[in-house]
Amino acid sequence: MDIRIHSSWEKPLQSEFKKPYFKDLMTFVKHEYATQTCYPKIENIYNAFNWCSFNDVKVVIIGQDPYHGVGQANGLCFSVNEGMAHPPSLRNIFKELEHDLGKTYPISGNLEPWAKQGVLLLNATLTVRAGVAGSHQKQGWEVFTDQVIKTINDQKRNVIFLLWGGFAKEKAKLIDTSKHTIITSGHPSPLSANRGYWFGNKCFSQVNSQLEQVGASPIVWQLP
């Protein structure tokens, strides 16, 4: 069972892969996938990194867990496979995209086109057991993904971090705002959005404005 990460991330994270917690994590993940139904597919666990190379990272969006329903998760936070119904949070993301930039509501919920432009769609926990939300938390994934954030913080400049909701905002302590930009809002979940903490945040236009200020190309948020 081979779980590979894009080569551009191997050098920045090489010390992490050698640590005892990471080896224990891989033992746990391989056992879970061998004995349970888990998501995403094992070859898609590192899709956030495989679609967005380390050199290309311009924006980081932080989620919590993969979707745990059949056929949903594809390794990118908030994203679903082609042909899948849009979960509530993703629907609200797309509604804000419509309101903010006047874009057409997308048919596909697959966010790979964002990742290919330098948007790292990072879940704090990269795997989950089918039907059991949070089942792979506190096994080491959070230690690893916190280190990913720290590595981006230390080795890059002018990255924009979109922190949606309380969980993601906790990651602000890992980010040096003298080098990077943090844009916060409520979570796109219906509970948060219906209380007025999501809609109207204009995060997508804010990101592109920030990118243009540092001479970087804006993200084409419209999905094909």
TrEMBL record:
GO cellular component: cytoplasm
Example GO biological process: base-excision repair, AP site formation via deaminated base removal
Keyword Cell membrane assigned: no
Active site per database record: D65
Enzyme class per UniProt: hydrolase
Segments forming domain Uracil-DNA glycosylase-like: 50-211
Keywords assigned: Cytoplasm, DNA damage, DNA repair, Glycosidase, Hydrolase
SUPFAM superfamilies: Uracil-DNA glycosylase-like
Protein family according to the UniProt entry: Belongs to the uracil-DNA glycosylase (UDG) superfamily. UNG family.
HAMAP family: UDG
Name used for this protein in its record: Uracil-DNA glycosylase
